[in-house]
Amino acid sequence: MRTHQGDFQTNTHLHPLSIATGCEPRDKHTFHTEPPSDRSTDGVAAGFRTMTLEDELTKAAATGNTTTVEDLLQAGAQVNGVMMMGSSPVAQLLLQYGADPAVRDRSTGSSPLHDAARTGFVDTVRLLVKNQADPQARDNKHNRPVDLARQHGHTEVENYLQSLPDTE
Asked: Which residue ranges contain the repeat ANK (predicted)?
């Protein structure tokens, strides 16, 4: 069994709940810049890459940093585009700020519930289902979250999802 404590993974094919969504990066918000790649005093010439609030939110969610996630959300970071499967507190916070637990990745058709089931984070699976994620949703390969849990050997997640109504 994998829980949220200390074992974090990130779904890198999603931009900043997978929660969430398929939103494109928003260039209008910036939070900080990365250090220059050389010693030039001109930020652009020096290789600064401006990071959006959503980039920072993705980074904070990936490390399970709930305090930073909340600070960034309060600063205006867009919640949809981010999900941290391994941290139920981060997932809960994103949901409180309006993340959509049913959003799908455009390329795979996976929802946050698919990702949490595949990676074995039972606490996050329970939280997403409690917040109206569809356990019967199928990804582009026709897999339901329970199928992914079974394929990856996450029996606790599989058993939980099978206990829900309408799960085959």
From this structure: 108-140
Helix extents (H) in the chain: 53-62, 66-74, 88-96, 112-119, 122-130, 145-151, 155-163
Sequence ranges of the domains in the chain: 30-163
Closest CA to 93 of 105, 79, 81, 103: 79
Domain 30-163 CATH superfamily = Ankyrin repeat-containing domain (1.25.40.20)
Q: Is the dihedral of CA 97, 15, 25, 40 positive or negative?
A: positive
pTM of the entire predicted model: 0.69
Give me the tens of pLDDT residue by residue for the chain, a chain 168 residues long.
444 434 333 344 343 354 332 333 333 333 333 443 444 444 444 455 567 888 899 889 888 899 999 999 999 998 876 766 678 999 999 999 999 898 888 899 999 999 999 999 999 999 999 999 999 999 999 999 999 999 999 999 999 999 998 755
In sequence order, what are the beta bridge partners of 33?
50
Name the one residue in this structure whose structure tokens are 């959503």: 54
CA 150 – CA 158 distance, rounded (Å): 6
Please state, in angstroms and rounded to a whole number, the distance separating the CA atoms of residues 4 and 145: 18
Name 50's bridge partners. Answer: 33
Lookup: tokens for 86: 């391994």
